[in-house]
Amino acid sequence: MEYYKGLINSLQRGVVAPVYLFSGEEEYLKERAVEKFKEYLLPQAADFNLDLLDGEETEISTVISLAENLPFMAERRLVIVKNAPWFSGGKGKGKEEAAEPGEAKVTGKDAVLLEYLNNPAPTTCLIFVARDAVDRRKKAYKAIAAKGQVIDFKMLKTTEMIAWVNQAVKASDKRIDAPAARALVEANGKLGLLNLANEIKKVISYLGSEQVITATAVHEVGTINIEQNIFTVVDEAVSGHTSKALSGIRELLSLKEQPPKILALLARQLRIALQANALLQSGCPEREIAGKMGLPDFVIKKSLSQVRREGSPRIEWALEQIAAIDADIKKGQRDFLPAIEMMLIEFSRQSSVTSR
């Protein structure tokens, strides 16, 4: 939490870098930080000085062009690029191929990005929000670290989450006792503050006019450990049990979990599996992976078993499909349940063909 407090404190004091890279798994604090930048940098003429972009759909040349524009009746412009793909490892859109160990050659679009990052416009605050893990070896990453700030939005520790829960409940003019706060965090904290915020809303709605949230109330609301449910869905899918995987999805929907959240959690689980397997393949002992990733041992064991059964290419395919479904749903082009059903059927079918 200190990284977030430090960032906001600098912002309040008017210390603003020309370029930022937000990475890490704590999505809630990422979003809060972005909103704080809007609030402090654009109190007036916001419509003229704010650009919100999707990195998966926007060319880097467009991002740079907007960043180089001068502000209108204000000190700064603010350009925010979500889903920025130019800082993650491997091959793909805007991604470099390693030329030497720890080094990367820079050509084409990457060169355009690097040229700007080495001399960013002083009247623009450019924020890249990465969805995937970033590669610190990349020259673009190093350029931002040198000319601006890289913020790793890490998942909070248990004690920090409990403190955050107390503050969130207090902001709603309620109180929560210590056992209840711990129960909420233990059941839902592994998925981050966004999940905790949703669970707090459920409990407060359940309480009505009552002022104090107790552990009894938390258990009565029946907040489930959704992470375990997601594990089950992925497990059934990689085992070829499509109907059981779909039953798990329908159960989450019946519990009022929203499709974007379900997709995000499925994607997170698949990324954990790929990251754990990448560490294993690089020579990291399996017993050390949980510590390096900051996750419980059982999560890593389950994730690695999923990769071993299915293989990295199929897991990567599933991750791409989830991203496509999420984008299509937001555009109104597909409905969640039929889309995820077809994806799981295709996943199971192709897995069967591959195993022959």
Provide a brief overview of the structure.
The protein has 356 residues and is α/β, with parallel strands linked by helices.
Q: What tags apply to this protein structure?
A:
Rossmann fold; 3 domains; Helicase, Ruva Protein, domain 3; five-stranded parallel sheet; 356 residues
Count of alpha and pi helical runs: 17
| Unreliable stretches | 91-104
CATH class of the largest domain: Alpha Beta
Number of domains: 3
How helical, in percent, are the residues? 55-70%
CATH architecture of the largest domain: 3-Layer(aba) Sandwich
Rg = 22 Å
Which series of helices and strands comes N to C?
A: HEHHEHEEEHEHEHEHHEHHHHHHHH
* Class inferred from helices and paired strands: alpha/beta
* CATH topology term of the largest domain: Rossmann fold
Could you tell me the number of beta strands?
A: 9
**What is the rounded distance between the termini?**
49 Å
Give a description of the structure.
With 356 residues, the protein is of the alpha/beta class. Helices cover 60% and strands 10% of the residues. The strands form 3 sheets. Strands 2-3-6-1-7 form a 5-stranded parallel β-sheet, sandwiched between helices. Strands 4-5 form a two-stranded antiparallel ribbon. Strand 4 and strand 5 form a beta hairpin. The longest helix is centred in the last third of the chain and has 23 residues. The protein is globular, with a radius of gyration of 22 Å. About 4% of the residues have low confidence.
List the helices and strands and how they pair.
Blueprint: H1 2-12, E1 19-23, H2 27-41, H3 46-49, E2 50-54, H4 60-67, E3 77-82, E4 98-100, E5 103-104, H5 108-118, E6 124-129, H6 139-147, E7 149-152, H7 158-171, E8 175-176, H8 178-188, H9 193-207, E9 212-213, H10 215-221, H11 226-238, H12 242-254, H13 259-281, H14 286-293, H15 297-310, H16 312-330, H17 336-355
Parallel strand pairs: 1-6, 1-7, 2-3, 3-6, 8-9
Antiparallel strand pairs: 4-5
